[in-house]
Amino acid sequence: MFRSGAQLMILVLLVGLFLMRESRQAPADALEEGFADFLAMNSQRKEAPAPVTLVEINESSLRGHAWPWTPLDFALFFQAASAFQPELLATDEVLQWDPRKFSSDQQVKLPQYQKILREHVLRAPRLLLGAQLGYPEDPTQVPPLAETPIIRRIAGDVSSIPEFTAIEVQAEEDFRFAGATGFTNLVQEQGTHRTVPLLLRYRGQVVPSFVLQSILLWEKLTPDDVAVTAGRQVTLADRLDIPIDAFGRMRVDFGAARGRCGFDELVLASAQADAQRTTIVSPTILNGRMLLLSRTDPDSRVLRLGANRLGSTGELFSRAIATIQGRSFIKRVPVWFDFALLGAVMIASCFVPRWSKARTVVACAVLLVAYVMIALVVFGATLMWVPIVLPAGLAVFVALFRLVTPGLPQGAK
After folding, report:
1. Contact 74, 91 (CB under 8 A)
2. Does residue 227 surpass a pLDDT of 90?
3. Which of 36, 63, 138, 250 has the greatest CB tally within 10 Å of its CB?
4. What is the DSSP string of 137-156?
5. What is the DSSP string of 264-284?
6. Largest interatomic CA distance in the chain
């Protein structure tokens, strides 16, 4: 039973249709998304690195500047960065301090430190500061409506975009009015973070997230230049379309190249530049770019990012910003490719009953490896990723089928 090539073709068709359906549902869809991340991070890319550099508050930084940072620590960042004339300075940290978290000596000096930071902040060319939306502690006591940037050009149903009723935390007033505010809420709390929100809702109004606000500042646009087609795209001044899902989230290309340097390296490079010496960090990743200050120390790496890696919000945001700056919006191949692939496997399966078991297993393994290599080339050239559940599932099925069934004699049909 099921020994002829025609019978195997029917089985391959049924298994293939099953795999195509399951690959779009949990948990198999996670395998497809993971394969897309693998292609993004391992394919040969042609595009130049995006003009954003992640300035890392890493373990080394925290040895010299213990967390939580005082305003003086942040002032050091703004002072050092100014030596390289960046286009935009940003931090997803909230410039707000609880004096109780500092020593008595630091508490006394806190107003002085804030004044120093404010002086450096005012010198920044353009500035983006982190904030977070949330909910009031007492649901019956709705806080006053705060002034926030609002996106007004909306088409479609935005009810799936997460909504908040309060600004939970934001920079102190002296710093907030010196620049723009971006909301750092990720919404998704568990699972792998392959997307970032571009849109959030505050008291019924659609507002830009930290990532979208950073792009608006970089492109020298305002929220009035943004048009949203819910569940489809965010359009910036008719010059750029950013694909989004129904929740207002954008898929991140984790292979999008961007600069990175440690906070200590930036400070040292600034001193070297002032002394007209060769800098420890190449000025090309600092001059005229967006510099994003964020934590990357082990305690902050609590997010599971693409390719099953742990990372921080800063790492996720910098990749998302690089995705938009580089226009590297990855996408899946059309569904016709799945049917074409299934048809090719069906045709090849006609000959499998006549092959030896060893030959069948080796052929399936070799073809699957070749498929992955071709997928890397295709992604590098087009940013389109091909399915993996369907070809891998069919290769395993055909190999197992041949191992458990006797072969046909030569000349048999």
Report:
1. yes
2. yes
3. 36
4. SSTTSPPPPPP-----EEES
5. HHHHHHHHHHHTT---SS-GG
6. 94
pLDDT in tens, 286-344: 999 999 999 999 999 999 998 778 999 999 999 999 999 999 999 999 999 999 999 99
As a whole number of angstroms, the distance between CA 306 and CA 303 comes to 10
Q: Please list, in sequence order, all residues whose beta carbon lies within 8 angstroms of the beta carbon of residue 258, skipping any fewer than 6 positions away.
A: 49, 50, 52, 53, 54, 318, 319, 321, 322
HSE at residue 106, side-chain half, CA atoms within 13 A, is 15
CB 172 within 8 A of CB 130: no
Angle among Cα 75, 78, 79 to the nearest 5 degrees reads 85
In sign, the C-alpha dihedral spanning 314, 55, 78, 108 is: positive
Question: Which three-class secondary structure state does DSSP give residue 117?
Answer: helix
* Peptide linkage before 27 cis (omega within 30 of 0): yes
Mean of pLDDT values over 262-289: 92
For residues 167 and 134, the answer to whether their CB atoms sit within 8 Å is yes
pLDDT at 410 (0 to 100): 52
CB 156 within 8 A of CB 199: no
Nearest-angstrom CA–CA distance, 101 and 111: 15
Hey, how many other C-beta atoms are within 10 angstroms of the C-beta on 227? 17
* Mean pLDDT of the region 241-268: 94
Residue 178 one-letter amino acid = A
- Closest by CA to 193, choosing from 37, 32, 298, is 37
Cβ atoms of residues 126 and 216 within 8 Å:
no
